[in-house]
Prior knowledge:
- A two-stranded antiparallel ribbon has the order 1-2.
- It is globular.
- The protein has helices at 5-18, 24-43, 57-68, 80-99, 125-132, 142-155, 159-163, 193-205, 227-230, 234-247, 256-269, 274-281, 286-289, 293-307, and strands spanning 176-180, 186-190.
- Helix content is 53%, strand content 3%.
- It is mainly alpha-helical and 312 residues long.
- It has two domains: 5-109, DNA polymerase, domain 1, CATH 1.10.150; 125-304, Orthogonal Bundle (hpI Integrase, Chain A).
Amino acid sequence: MTSDLVALTVNFLEYLEVERNCSRLTIRNYAHYLNTLIQYLHEELKMVSPKIEDLTFEVIRKFRVHLSRSPGTAGADMKSVTQGYYVIALRSFLKWCVKNDIKCLAPEKIEVPKNNDHSLKFLDDEQMTRLLNQPLPSSKNGLRDRAILELLFSTGLRVSELVGLSRDQVNLSTREFGVIGKGGKSRVVFVSKSAALHVERYLKSRMDKMKPLFIRTGGKSSITDGDEKMRLSARSVQRLVKHYVRAAKLPVAATPHTLRHSMATDLLRAGADLRSVQELLGHKNIATTQVYTHVTDARLREVHEKFHKGNK
């Protein structure tokens, strides 16, 4: 197999698409991270046709220094968590090279930067209620937006999973349906009574027969453009959540993913076990779900305060 870095990168991305069944977003992100590295080799180290053997430990160290001094989205230096994404992509690429008997730097020699910010954004009961009550049923998109907020909080769906839903996929009678998440992992999600009620109200208000569960109402296109062109985008959902968060004057800069965190937090506070929450969220590894241990730790403290003899 070739040792040309550009060609290997293309092969790796095809592997992610075909064999790993990664989402388009994941592939796009990995392409960005790896192409940024190749661009750095071209422009900063003056490598015309970089090879896999050019990725030495020293070269990677210099690239990471370059990342740490690069501007982030807010103009400040790139956050360590963002730098970590580049490192994770590079390690995955090198692991693939090793798997294919391509001589390269050992991926385990590259450490992922530690992220000091382990805070997890979620909404408490009062904040969640305020947010859900923001869309007005009488407004143009009020019924739709309330149904979206309710469904995100009820199911813990990722925004990409939400906008990909079709009408015939969601069973409002049994209040459960299947969804394909990250890496092609399937799971069953459950709809609360409140969410089912608001989704049903929204669907009854629609005069069309289009397949998408949630459709847009603005823009230049019309209903005659076809089902998929009218499907609500992930970016639109992110914008509407941001709008209602501001309207509710919440102290948390909540996003659709915050509602996913809030759903998990709500279940754990009520006594659900971590393994069940892992299944509901579609996490491949329990370690991913363990970011919610701040909730279980707090609950254990309540148990200790209530039942330990030393506290009486």
